[in-house]
Amino acid sequence: MAGQSDPHLSLFSADELEFIAEDEMVEIVPNLKMDALNLISGDFGPFVPQITTQVPLWLAVALKKRGKCSIRPPEWISVDKLTQVLEAERESQEMSEKLPFHYVEISRLLFDHARDDIPDVYMVRSLIEDIRDVRFHKVETDLEAFNGRTIAVKIKNLSAMEVNIVRPFIRRALQAFCKHDSPELIPDPERVSDRRPQVANNAPRRQLRR
Amino acid sequence: MAKYYDIDDIITEEEIVSVIFQKEASGVGIDPSSETDYIEAGSKLRQAVSVNVPPCFNQNTRLEIQADSACVDLRSRCPFFYEFGCKVAPLVGDRTIGFLLLSAFKNRYKEVLTKAHTAAFTAASKFWSILTKEEINMYEAAQSSMASFKKWRMGGPRLQKASVLGRKRKSTE
């Protein structure tokens, strides 16, 4: 069950996110002959040597650990693609949409278990690190724009791990902003210390007096 | 009532404010010749007293917050600056406290945001000591989520055996 690791801090731990990311599909080239696997999540296979097939990442990693397949790295894990993404990330404040939702987790799983299947693994790895840093910096600048009238945050194409890192902080910050902004909007003294975020007040709020 | 057992809320209400009695009160157990007494914030006694503005919201603090709110040591003034402000503002009847709280929080929030996710723990210890309780909660939430992410990223089979070592052993066996 989600959130068992530390229910107070964030909904998921990094390991739980990794677990979720293991359901993403990857292509593998098996080197064994095996019938199709009928699992609850679907049927995978049949496995024929040198014939590529689609399996979830957890199955790919399990087969790879036993030396039964080689993993075809996804299209976006290549020096060319990642260089393009990095450039795009550096150029604009928008988050690039070319990376999958679980790119941090998938790349780490592949680096850990399928190093030999990724061409230029060191270059790819450092590119992904750079992209992650650039993106996280952008998230921070986005969050700096918070002010009292913020009710929700909208950041497009944020990945699972990035949003998980900032979630506990944002939650507390938004709560505090809602609390401190309410006396300005609602002069009613009983509601000043109301902790609940006032979701209903979607109307643009009055400008602050300076 | 939801915050009845909240220890922070209880401590906040322990904050001392000075008041002026508007009506005669007998049996309160104070020197009858003195006009002022200390009661806890939040216990508004049917307009029997008027509450003075607490020292942490005085003109000096306001000027400091206007100048550079990120550097003001709010913790030494009142560790529960924001909560206390929210509670005391309706009692004092000073509408500007709300604006003061919001603008102070807004500016200090940026500082917390940039430092919380990046700065190393030791480097931030000085910065840490001027935060109020609410800001510390936020800061710690960010630090611990960042730390757990880093732990996850570093974990797993990270160390590789150098190819030389493997060969050497084979030749001896």
Automatic annotation (TrEMBL), chain A:
Pfam families documented for this protein: PSF2_N, Sld5
Compositional bias segments (type: Basic and acidic residues): 185-197
GO cellular component: GINS complex
Keyword annotations from UniProtKB, A to Z: DNA replication, Nucleus
Keyword Repressor: no
Subcellular location: Nucleus
Region (Disordered): 185-210
Limits of the DNA replication complex GINS protein PSF2 N-terminal domain: 14-71
Superkingdom, natural source: Eukaryota
Span of domain GINS subunit: 76-173
BP GO terms, sorted: DNA replication; double-strand break repair via break-induced replication
Subunit annotation: Component of the GINS complex.
Family assignment from sequence similarity: Belongs to the GINS2/PSF2 family.
Protein name as catalogued: DNA replication complex GINS protein PSF2
UniProt organism field: Senna tora
Lineage of source species: Eukaryota, Viridiplantae, Streptophyta, Embryophyta, Tracheophyta
TrEMBL record, chain B:
Alphabetized Pfam families for the sequence: Sld5
Recorded superkingdom: Eukaryota
Coiled coil spans: none
UniProt keyword Ribosomal protein present: no
Residues annotated as domain GINS subunit: 57-152
Primary location class: nucleus
Keyword match Chloroplast: no
Compartments where located: Nucleus
InterPro entries: GINS_A, GINS_bundle-like_dom_sf, GINS_Psf3, GINS_Psf3_sf
BP term (GO), one: mitotic DNA replication initiation
Cellular-component GO terms for this entry: GINS complex
Keywords associated with the record: DNA replication, Nucleus
UniProt similarity note: Belongs to the GINS3/PSF3 family.
Full protein name: DNA replication complex GINS protein PSF3-like
Source species of the chain: Senna tora
